[in-house]
Amino acid sequence: MDDLDSRLIAELRRDGRASLSDLAHALGVTRTTVRARLRRLIERGEVAGFTVLTRADVAQAPVRGLMMLAIEGRWTDRVMARLGGIPEVGAFHTTNGPWDLIVEVSAESLEAFDEALFAIRRIEGVARSETHLLLSSRRPLRRGV
Question: What pLDDT, in 10s, does the model give residues 6-56?
Fold first, then answer.
């Protein structure tokens, strides 16, 4: 991947629906070059796919946090399956170190957030947890959303 490929990916991250013409103009190259580069990036697996963000995806609930979980023994798959059924869980990530999973939790109120944390702690296999509230986010939303 060279500089032009990196710049193309950056433009697509800003606006995944940008036309080939718009991308070519922004990058200072021809539409044919953009089309060929994009095709090559997809074929090589550098671009794994395209997605849509809905308003609900970018709307931030008033109360958000990260919950670190330590899982007993071989319960990780079952815990992850249960987490997927909790509406306040936006995503979860396996990790290394003292915690096995990091869970993104969001809710409309502190009470709802607390209830979600309690539900997560009750999942069989969760040995211990630690939660941190997210007070503010510094990364701006992507253009075009």
Answer: 999 988 988 888 999 999 999 999 999 999 999 999 999 999 888 776 776
Q: What's the CATH fold of domain 3-43?
A: Arc Repressor Mutant, subunit A (1.10.10)
Q: Where are the domains of the chain?
A: 3-43, 56-133
Span 106-140, pLDDT tens digits: 999 999 999 999 999 999 999 999 999 999 877 65
Side chain identity at 105, as an amino acid letter?
Answer: V
Q: What's the fold here for domain 56-133? A: Alpha-Beta Plaits (3.30.70)
Both tokens of residue 92? 């979860």
| b/e 81-102 (16+ beta carbons within 10 angstroms → b) | ebbeebebbeebeeeeeebbbb
pTM of the entire structure? 0.61
